[in-house]
Amino acid sequence: ALPHDLAGVRVVISAGGTREPLDPVRFLGNHSSGKQGFALARAAAQRGAIVTVVAGSTADPGDPAGVGIVRVSDAQHLAEEMTKRAAEADVVIMAAAVADFRPVAFAESKIKKSDTGPAPIELTTNPDILRGLVTDREAGRIPPETVIVGFAAETGDETGGVLDHGRAKLRRKGCDLLVVNAVGDGKAFGTEDNTGWLLSATGTETALPLGSKTLMSSRILDEVRALVPGSDDV
Ligand code: C5P
C-alpha cells in the first residue's frame, strides 16, 4: 500500500502544453501529452495530497479521481492561474511545456492566403512562470516554505551535457528541485516511460532510471515530501 505521507498537503501541478493563438483557428503549440503531470497528480492524490492540476493541451484525458482540474489555453492564462494558486499551495510543480514565444498580434479573423506569399509571424517572449514563482516567493508574495519544482527537457546523452544543462538551469530558475528529462530519439514526449535526474538546490543528484511516469512520479514525490515542513510528523 502507498504511504499516506502527503495527507493534507496542497499540491498544484501544471501539465500539458500551451497553445499560443494566432487567429481564431490557428495556434503555435507543442507535443506535450500532459502524461507526466497527470501521473504526478494521481500519485500525489493517492498519498493523501489535495491536488489541483492546471492543464493546457493534453493527450492524457486526465480525470483522475480526487484531483481538481483547471483548463487553460495559453501561457499567459497558465501564468495567471499558477501565480494565484501558488499563494495557497504547499507544493508547486511546473510540469507543463510552456511556449517560450507567442505571436505579438492576434488576428481577429482567419489569416488569408495571399498572392505575395505568407506574412512573417512576429513573436514575443512569454513570461517564465517558474522563475516568476521563485521571484514571488523571494518577494514574500507566496510563503517562503512553499516547495517549487521545475522540469527540464534536455537533448543529448549523459556525456553530452544533459546533466550540465540541468545543473545550470536549476541555478538559473532558483527552484528547489529540477527534474531533468532526457528527450529526443523518441524519449519523454508522449511516451509512457521517462528517464533522467532529480537535482536539488542543496546539491543532491539522483539518477532516475528508465521507468514509467508513475514510477518517476513516486521518486519525485519522495523528494518533495522531504522538503515539506513538518512532513516527518505525518
Ligand atoms: O527554460 P526551460 O523552458 O527549459 O524550463 C523548463 C521549466 O520551466 C519547466 O518547469 C517549465 O514548466 C518552466 N517554464 C515556465 N515558463 C516558461 C518556460 C518554461 O514556467 N515560459
From TrEMBL:
This protein's name: Coenzyme A biosynthesis bifunctional protein CoaBC
Cofactor(s) essential for the protein: FMN; Mg(2+)
GO biological process: coenzyme A biosynthetic process; pantothenate catabolic process
Stated role: Catalyzes two steps in the biosynthesis of coenzyme A. In the first step cysteine is conjugated to 4'-phosphopantothenate to form 4-phosphopantothenoylcysteine, in the latter compound is decarboxylated to form 4'-phosphopantotheine. Catalyzes two sequential steps in the biosynthesis of coenzyme A. In the first step cysteine is conjugated to 4'-phosphopantothenate to form 4-phosphopantothenoylcysteine. In the second step the latter compound is decarboxylated to form 4'-phosphopantotheine.
Pathway: Cofactor biosynthesis; coenzyme A biosynthesis; CoA from (R)-pantothenate: step 3/5; Cofactor biosynthesis; coenzyme A biosynthesis; CoA from (R)-pantothenate: step 2/5
EC numbers on record: 4.1.1.36, 6.3.2.5
UniProt GO MF annotations: FMN binding; metal ion binding; phosphopantothenate--cysteine ligase activity; phosphopantothenoylcysteine decarboxylase activity
Domain DNA/pantothenate metabolism flavoprotein C-terminal, residue spans: 6-226
Designated gene of the protein: coaBC
Family designation: In the N-terminal section; belongs to the HFCD (homo-oligomeric flavin containing Cys decarboxylase) superfamily.
Binding site for CTP: D100, K110, P127, D128, I129, L130, F151, K169, K173
Superkingdom in the source lineage: Bacteria
Full protein: residues contained: 190 to 423 of 424
Taxonomic lineage: Bacteria, Bacillati, Actinomycetota, Actinomycetes, Mycobacteriales
The UniProt record lists the keyword Nucleotidyltransferase: no
Catalytic reaction list: N-[(R)-4-phosphopantothenoyl]-L-cysteine + H(+) = (R)-4'-phosphopantetheine + CO2; (R)-4'-phosphopantothenate + L-cysteine + CTP = N-[(R)-4-phosphopantothenoyl]-L-cysteine + CMP + diphosphate + H(+)
Region annotation (Phosphopantothenate--cysteine ligase) ranges: 11-234
Keyword line: Decarboxylase, Flavoprotein, FMN, Ligase, Lyase, Magnesium, Metal-binding, Multifunctional enzyme
Cofactor note (record): Binds 1 FMN per subunit.
GO cellular component terms given for this protein: phosphopantothenoylcysteine decarboxylase complex
